Amino acid sequence: MSRLPRVVITGVGLTAPNGNSLAEFRQALLAGKSGVQPYEIRYFGKTLAGICNFDALRYQKRKDVRRGTRAGSIAIYCAHEALKDAGLDWAKVDRSMVGVYVGTTEHGNVETESEIYEVSKHNYNLDFWTHHHNPRTVANNPAGEVTLSLGITGPAYCIGAACAAGNLGIIHATQMLQLGEVDLAFGGGVSESIHTFGIFAGFKQQTALATHDDPTKASRPFDKARNGIVVAEGGCLYTLERLDDAKRRGAKIYAEIAGWAVNSDASDYVLPNSERQRECMRKALKHAGIGPGDVQIVNTHATGTQQGDEMEAQAVQAVFGDFAGVNVNNTKSYIGHAMGAAGALELAGNLPSFEDGVVHPTINLDELDPQCAVRGLVANTPRAVGRVDTILNMSFGMLGINSALVVKRFVG
Questions:
Q1: Architecture of domain 7-248
Q2: What percent of the chain stands above pLDDT 90?
Q3: Which residues are known to be catalytic?
Q4: Distance CA 397, CA 392 (A)
Q5: pTM assigned to the model
Q6: Averaged over 16-42, what is the pLDDT?
Q7: One-character DSSP codes across 359-400
Q8: Would you kindly state where each structural domain of the chain is located, as residue ranges?
Q9: Span 259-399: which CATH code?
């Protein structure tokens, strides 16, 4: 990897159920503030969800919001915020050399469900079907909406990688920069999952949908009383640049992309494979040229399901259990599972640790499940560790896709 250009993060744009900027998000994580709340969706009824409250009209006109999608609005908001945070002079950027790589879990379900619901009010007369349906449902929609908003003429597409997609958006953006395909990349992930009743119904049928009298305590990875997933929406896009370009313009640098790995379980549609997960982590560390003892933060994917949390805990313990300096945390305990946006948002929640040396905890961990015992697990209270140099961010998904991303403190 040393022969390839170094790639760094120079801007962060996000919306999460508990914050609409990196500063707000980080403050909420350190304060133990959840973004999960009561929610009701047609056909399914009352449930819980992680719901974002960003201003879509900050960067879009009302007609654009009506014509586009929720995922598109999230992506547009995140891209503009990341661009602003990066301090780029957009007027001087060659937009044919800008790439947009957006991870998504699924896309289009929301729009088709909504249209079926609308025509059902008119005895299924398809004259009432919107002519905007097709551009709303194509898989590249969120990335395409970003190009329309920012006038980007370079490559732009979505990466379907289930719940590993947020990591994959960052990884792919890094690779395209290293190959010289683009000079600036937006990479990350978005999710509009709470707007499709099908995902709630599907998780309920799998007995994997979380319930709790207190919505803020429903998402409880590793806890003995956990009972499933809280579905969430959200997004996070990063501006990524080659190091030489970033230094040339005096950019603020959040972190350096140090290594990654992606592999597949090839064993089940939904059940995780602990052995493949630990292989993915070890490959990412090898790619970064480091060992387990060089990592200060491991951010887990754990979603709050019984078997999923156990399998991941076993994998983390197998790789990092012998190293006292490793701290393990989880971000879904605050916001639920943001699907395609999860990996990108969870990385963002830990990035400020390079500056403040504090590891945000896993909240709602009232009684640790012995099957999920992991050395270094940070529970309920932030942990000051003095210095953080390396973060491993993990995201796994259905059909057995696993991803692990290593980011390091930038050292010039």
A1: 3-Layer(aba) Sandwich (3.40)
A2: 98
A3: 163, 301, 337
A4: 17
A5: 0.97
A6: 98
A7: E--B-S-SSB-GGG--TTB-BSS-EE-S---EEEEEEEEGGG
A8: 7-248, 259-399
A9: 3.40.47.10
